[in-house]
Every structure is written in C-alpha cells, then in structure tokens.
C-alpha cells in the first residue's frame, strides 16, 4: 500500500498540471482563408477515371466554415477579411483557373493560395487572427495537401499541386505576424502538427520518454502564435452524409463536429444554412479557444477517436492539435 502512495501522488500531480495557459492579448481583425476542393474537374482525354478520387464533403466544409466564422467575427465586433478558395464541379477551362475575386470566389490553385497568404502577411498585425481551413486530399506517405490543378487538356500531374508542411508553415505562415490557426480536414494531416517550445509532435516522435521530459522540463513554455489542428494523425479522414435520404449533404466527419462546435446547425435537408444566434457550444466561460474547439470535436465527432477492442470499428479518426499545455483565445463573447 505504501508503495502505491507515491504513484498516486504523482498521478494526481500530473493530472492537476494539465492546466492550459494563454495570453490576454488584444483581439484584432480576423482573416479567414477557407479551401475546399472536390477534384471533379480533371481533364482526361481517354474518358477514364481521374487519378484524384472525387470528394463530396470538401466544398460544403469550406463554404459553411467560411460563413459561420464570418458570423462569429461580426457578432463579436471585429473586422472581417475573408478569402474563399474553391474548386467545384467539372469545369476545367482557362477562365476557371484564372478566377480571383475575393467577393465572388477564388479558384483553389496553389498559386492563388500563396498570393492570398502573401497579401495577408503584408496586412495582418500581431493582435490579429488568421484562420486557414483546408478540406481536400492528403498524400498518404507525408500528408501533403493537394491543390486544384490548372490543366485544361491531357492528364493531371500531382507533384506540382502538392504543398508540404514545411513549405506552407515555414515559408508562408510563420512570417505572418498575427496569431494563426491552421485547420486541416485531410488524410494523414497529423504530419502537419509541428513541434514547438510547448509540445512535441506525437506523430513524428513516438518516444514517450521525450514527451515526459518535455512536460517536466524546467524551462518556461513558449507561447506559440501558430496552432495546428488536424482531422487525423496518420490515418484516413472520412466523410459523413448528413441527409441519407437525398445523399446530397456531405461533410468531413471532423468538419461536421467543428461546425457544430462553432454553432452551425443542420436541422433538416431543406434548411441547411443556419447559424445559432447563441454563443457557440464549444465556448468556455466567455472564450472560444483552440483547446475548447478540440475538446468538443473529440467528444462529439461521429467516429471513435481510437480503435476499441470492446467496440470494434473498422473506421476511427483521431484529431490532433499542437500547443501542449498552451492555448489561444480565438473569440471572446
């Protein structure tokens, strides 16, 4: 019994130490970049199936996240800057590829995304918030994002469309001075979760001794200004049909829970675009934070977060978030 006491005390200390910390910085303007790609417009002269499987829930993900984030931004009295990047449908003309109008739509090409992020870099201030959401394919071996192609004839080459974690984060997100949240609903997206002064990557580093050492190290935690939240670790991400009768309203499993966390309702098939006028369900006190969103998603998503021997499921999906013991306020009500 005596041997159990130190163990129990250590466990109690560990559990009580999982306190989340965040700064009380001024909440400035909000920039949102929402990306949704369905990959239906691959040209193929031989009329064969394209090399990128079509996705049905990605465009609804982007459109509805864009709308609910705009609603929350304006409701909390902050200035809004929105960029909706879509590839939707079968059109693969050169006019489609060149579409770049923040008011009517931006074609979701790699070049257009980098142009948007460069523009935000030139405008955003340290107190501002930048949220980037991506719903699309993730390459199996390394999680690379796959942007929409710009080829009007012939086959599509994936390599020029890929965006690696290091390219996106190091070259385009880190230089933005604002607080940033990158949200990825794609397969193997956990590779994007970076190591930081406050945490290690549970995907890239599987050594529990290193995690323990990071938690107990004596140096002060650094508060990151970039958080990354992903739909999965090293597994696939899945879609769910919210209206099985019509088979027309599909979302990512992760994005469905995220939309619910933000206050987006899907009551029935004919009335899909509703933002709850009340505070979002994921709110804690008066704050909506990265961690409060993550906790809500894990608790409410339709797939289990891990395989369970007692409740076996062929599909499971474990979302991840960076930051360790640190948290970041997104909105204050």
UniProtKB/TrEMBL annotation:
Record Pfam families: Peptidase_C14
Signal peptide bounds: 1-22
Keywords assigned: Signal
Keyword Oxidoreductase among record annotations: no
Domain Peptidase C14 caspase: 52-265
Keyword Signal found: yes
A Gene Ontology molecular function term of the record: cysteine-type endopeptidase activity
GO biological processes: proteolysis
Stated name of the protein: Peptidase C14 caspase domain-containing protein
């Amino acid at each position: 019994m005596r041997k159990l006491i130190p163990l129990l005390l250590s466990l109690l200390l560990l559990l009580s130490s999982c306190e989340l910390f965040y700064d009380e910085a001024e909440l400035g303007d909000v920039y949102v970049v929402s990306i949704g790609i369905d990959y239906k417009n691959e040209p193929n002269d031989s009329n064969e199936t394209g090399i990128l499987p079509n996705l049905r829930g990605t465009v609804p993900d982007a459109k509805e996240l864009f709308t609910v984030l705009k609603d929350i931004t304006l409701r909390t009295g902050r200035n809004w800057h929105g960029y909706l990047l879509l590839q939707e449908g079968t059109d693969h003309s050169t006019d489609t590829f060149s579409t770049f109008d923040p008011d009517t739509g931006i074609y979701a090409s790699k070049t257009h995304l980098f142009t948007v992020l460069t523009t935000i870099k030139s405008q955003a201030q340290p107190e501002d918030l930048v949220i980037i959401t991506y719903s699309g394919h993730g390459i199996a071996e390394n999680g690379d994002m796959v942007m929409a192609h710009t080829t009007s004839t012939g086959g599509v080459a994936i390599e020029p469309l890929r965006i690696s974690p290091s390219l996106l984060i190091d070259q385009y997100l880190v230089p933005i001075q604002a607080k940033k949240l990158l949200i990825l609903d794609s397969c193997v997206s956990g590779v994007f979760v970076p190591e930081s002064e406050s945490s290690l990557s549970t995907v890239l580093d599987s050594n529990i001794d290193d995690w323990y050492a990071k938690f107990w190290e004596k140096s002060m935690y650094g508060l990151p200004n970039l958080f990354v939240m992903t739909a999965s670790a090293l597994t696939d991400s899945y879609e769910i049909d919210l209206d099985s009768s019509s088979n027309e309203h599909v979302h990512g499993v992760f994005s469905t829970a995220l939309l619910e966390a933000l206050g987006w309702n899907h009551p029935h098939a004919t009335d899909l675009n509703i933002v709850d006028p009340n505070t979002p369900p994921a709110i804690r006190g008066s704050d909506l934070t990265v961690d409060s969103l993550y906790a809500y998603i894990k608790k409410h998503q339709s797939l289990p977060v891990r395989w369970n021997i007692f409740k076996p499921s062929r599909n499971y999906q474990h979302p991840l978030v960076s930051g360790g013991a640190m948290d970041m306020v997104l909105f204050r009500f």
